[in-house]
Model the fold of this input.
Amino acid sequence: MKPLSEMTHYDVLEIQAGSPADEVERAYRIAQTTWAADGLATYSLYEEGESESIRERIELAYQVLSGPDTKAEYDRRLEPGETEMDFEEVDLDLQFVDETVAGPSVDLVPAEIEAFDDAADEGGDTEWTGARLRRARLRRGIDLEKIAEVTKINPTYLQYIEQDQFEDLPAAVYVRGFVVSLARCIGLESGQVADGYMARLREHTPEKRRPPGRHARR
Amino acid sequence: MTASTPPHLPKARLVAVGGGKGGVGKTFLSANLAHTLARAGYKVVAVDTDIEGPNLHTWLGVKAPRASLADFVSGRESRVENLLEETPHHGLGLLAATHGNLAAAQPSAARRAELLAALRELPCDFVFVDCGAGAHPANIDYFLVGDEGLLVLHPEPTSVENTYTFIRAAFYRRMQLAMQKHDVRECVREAMDQRNDRGIRTPLDLLRAVEEMDPEEGQRFAATMKTFRPRVVVNEVASTEDIKLGFSVRSVCRKFFGIEVDYVGYINRDRAVRDAILLRKPLTEVHPESDAAVYLQRVAGKLVEAARNAGSSA
Ligand SMILES: Nc1ncnc2c1ncn2[C@@H]1O[C@H](COP(=O)(O)OP(=O)(O)OP(=O)(O)O)[C@@H](O)[C@H]1O
Ligand SMILES: [Mg+2]
Done:
């Protein structure tokens, strides 16, 4: 409940005081999308003129905290006891946030998004269904088309996998490969996911469609 | 979730479900959160306060409710317990708002207060209050009375706009009710007008103004402000951008208004929702495995957690 004028640069970026450089980078990128002039979250607030000063504060915070020297100096001044904070002192060339900044590619999903996940949804002991894969993907913000592009898998098959549409999928050996690639793209433990998914696929696939090798083994 | 009964809460927890815009899923969430918690073994009552467009009963599979909130408003029935209706769902009761009288009035503020006091006394764990759309004073009052206010948001400009209008209106109303001195109340009332002459633009400006007028009221203001903490749910998300909107809204509320909101979850746009309402059954019964049902259960989990935390700190 602090007014902007009393917020530290860390408050402005909504991160813990002293957060490391990658956190600063990530928080700044998130703030950029939040406060972009045509952003959805600030819709209807612009005529009130205040968002501009908020954007300036975000830029200032980033400029100070992204330079190792300025950050070290700032952190030192933030130490308890050092209450003198003079933001205006630093004379910086402010740019506006809607200009795309070429920087290291960072994960734009706030860390807290993970707090929404039931541990169970990604833990090892429940079955890997298509729906669970889809949720894991959505959470990480990866579109199916992107995965299709990277993996060269037909997007329709990826969709069938997520919808547990087993009867429309090709032979099991291929499906396993698809699931492994999909899981890897999302950053899941691919072997485990594929084992779980394939076990369910086998359960749901009628006997006659099973590859002959399987019958021969019995 | 199974029927093993969880430990009951010492007192009914009121969860108001509101939001600035029509059709964003307030009733969908009220009905399905109520059903999810009832299935988990809690005793739950779902209350429709949308006198102008009641339809909570339909989600809960009650075709023609026999009693209605309108009976309480008109004074035909003075005991809220007598208006409760059974639903086909174990542990889930309904207070409907259907009525034969098209001219049925909104309850007076005093009558609303009576209603809400009675709801708190109901022998159950959770009471869900489904509010009507818009920042009408009646809707705001229902929303404010909850121990918990869920704001439902769509990832669209219109809904975002109405959400801010609603948060602002609810905030000023809460503060006005909390202030005790006449001149301070008057100041809060004037501040509601964005173009007021006092130069008060944000809740933080108002806090400063009140502190200056009367330090004691200023303290009360700051304390009440801390307890004003709406929880946001983004409904019908279709992309990660949509999911992130909740965080952005939280950030905007913090920096723009000085108001803290919690982002408690999102629910995807899901065909299963339509399937369920066509059957007039809760989603969590028809498609408990659907993505939307899984996300709903997460939000329900947050509500239980908050209720337990409140119970242990009280
Ligand atoms: N997650 C979802 N996916 C798909 N459809 C949804 C979802 N949430 C809600 N809907 C649909 O949107 C419509 C409006 O929902 P609902 O009636 O709950 O909104 P409301 O906010 O209560 O509206 P009102 O302001 O009129 O009371 C319903 O038909 C509902 O089935
Ligand atoms: Mg409704």
About this structure: The radius of gyration of chain B is 19 Å.
